[in-house]
Amino acid sequence: MCSSDLSFRYGHTVATGVTLNISRGGLAIRSTNPLSHGTPVRVRVKLPSGAGDVEADAVVVWSTPGVGMGLQFTTLSDDHQRVLDDFVVTHFFSSRRA
Fold first, then answer.
1. What pTM was computed for the model?
2. Which of 33, 36, 49, 58 has a 20 to 30 Å separation from 13 between CA atoms?
């Protein structure tokens, strides 16, 4: 697990948080007051180690009070998808052995 700082916007509200997990298709956010399932958000993640920033539209797909919420990316530019793919492969799969 590799945490990253992030900000997300829903409606006219902007909030910040920390990732619990990140993958090619979405991420989990630590939050004591998560948004409701189905809430659309715009998220910006600052990946660690200078890997870059990723910005995407997403939707809340799970929400657990006191724990956090999961976001599934719905729109992600090709450039940001490449940055995210490279980060995930480098940080989660590079040291795995078959």
1. 0.83
2. 49
Per DSSP, the three-state class of 83 is: helix
Per-residue pLDDT of the chain (98 residues; tens, 9 = 90+): 455 788 999 999 999 888 888 888 999 999 888 999 999 999 998 887 677 789 999 999 999 998 999 999 999 999 999 988 888 887 765 555 55
Phi-psi region of 49 (alpha: psi -120 to 50; beta: other; left: phi over 0): left
